[in-house]
Amino acid sequence: MREKTEALLRGKAVVVFGASSGIGAAAARTFAREGASVLLAARREELLAEICDKIEADGSDASYVVADVVSASAVRHVMRTAVDRYGRLDCAFNNAGVGGNPEPLHEMDDSVYDRIVDTNVRGLWNCLREEIATMLPTGGGAIVNNSSVGGLVAIPTAAPYVASKHAVIGFTRAAAAEYARHGIRVNAVAPGSTRTEITDEWYASTPGLQDEIHAATPQGRTADPAEIAEAAAWLLSDRASYVTGAVLPVDGGFVIR
Questions:
Q1: Domain that holds residue 113
Q2: H/E segment holding residue 64
Q3: Organism's domain of life (predicted)?
Q4: Which residues are catalytic?
């Protein structure tokens, strides 16, 4: 009889940014099920409190901090909270991100670019810098950044989003190379079409887009956020101990088509 597999993240202290919905909320629940103590961070307190209540009702340890990743001081506060609560930070999932409605590049307003790049690029910069500084004194840890298939291929009418997700991959590889010898692994997941607020906005604003994407995806469907969370959990776990600087497409085969 096969022995029960030990939980992937048992005993780990994990921070999840962008944890109030979609992939981030699914990640918080998945990581807790896999034995982690999770600290959720996002802007919407009501949603964070609801998710934490459900995790704790299942017998796992969860708490939250209201924070906007665009603010470096807010991210530092999340790190201090993690250290105060757990004594260290073992893992982090940088999921905070925004999209935008499909629109031709030459018609986009500066505010669209500013909103996307501030959150997806500056926000990641803030998180990575503080996470690495927090992990170094305790011997290292693991970080997973949420990119997108838009970080691997071009998506028309989404130029700032595509540029920002390519930047996520650049940050991932640069940080992985710089800190591997310090015991810090940095990887990324690149989700394809996934049921989140961003894709809901895109599908609602562009009739036929969902069918078009499904037709371009070998598995022919949209992912559940939990499927992305499972991939992130493995990358954060010690079972991926020799994996760093990797970008894992979780996309139903979209980028190989």
A1: 13-252
A2: strand 62-66
A3: Bacteria
A4: 161
